[in-house]
């Protein structure tokens, strides 16, 4: 959940009943009956989708009619009909919501064959997961103890700290969703994170961590060049070129994902060790992100990576009960963190203020983000003047540190992650 940057006390930041989900896939082998069941469910869901899309209105009456109709030749547990209707209904709802907002939206279609198995349709006894296919007749049993990576989560389920949520049943695999309800810890301090094209800068107490993300950029470049080569093939073999494109996009995505997960793990580790909450930039609040390159592609990539990284950081943090807030990052690297004055760009990444501050722009950004995250953004308190009049000491102790960084002893850590 995103929160405005206005509220200031740390206790009001707690959301109620927040949950985080971690999904894991395990390979399974199913018999003929279950294969046919997955096939039949797919058909059922498709006709439900058509009915809902075609219906002028879909109230409780239409819902009951559809349910009765679908149940007529349904030989499996009837709960599956309900979840198919629910699943399709939410697909159609989000499609219509997008249309209403004037966004581009594709008419929903069902491509992948899978069954949503809600919690009333399975039970977990010890490590045995038992899914009802036909009540009292046919079940799918999976021993989760055979999957070593699942065992730690299973132990948490046994201890009552996690729940096993609805499952996704595919012909060859099962997706388990472990649900945790978040109980935010009382944090000692807040760390702020600024995401750029070539680095991610983190301010945690008196330490600045700068993670080099050039590797990420490198991955995108490599695959960009590969794609250009493949495009040439398409003139004489369209199918082959499409297949190759798909394969390489997938590889690129996986390598990027791998890198982002590593980076997020490091950051969340720091937050956990130091018992700090996390302040992120609310990227929805800025239309254009200014980066060091004029290329449109770079801009798009950095924005995509930034959002994806934030998403991963947020769920990993919440998995450890660490609170995460978003602040409006507008002008975060253009306003002096010490006096609120306008900064003037110098050579390299340095910024200068008339008050005497000369500092690295990423460092300035994390200082401002932390200050605004803890105290509210300039907009929240009526413009930059309010900060200037408040005096540097009161507004941002870090602002003074920015000037006397060496003396107070802020440490810079340059970190290069090992390439995936
Ligand atoms: Zn200044």
From TrEMBL:
The keyword Plastid does not apply. Keywords: DNA-binding. Signal peptide: none annotated. This is Transposase IS605-like protein. GO terms for molecular function: DNA binding. Pfam families: Cas12f1-like_TNB. Residues 307-369 form the Cas12f1-like TNB domain.
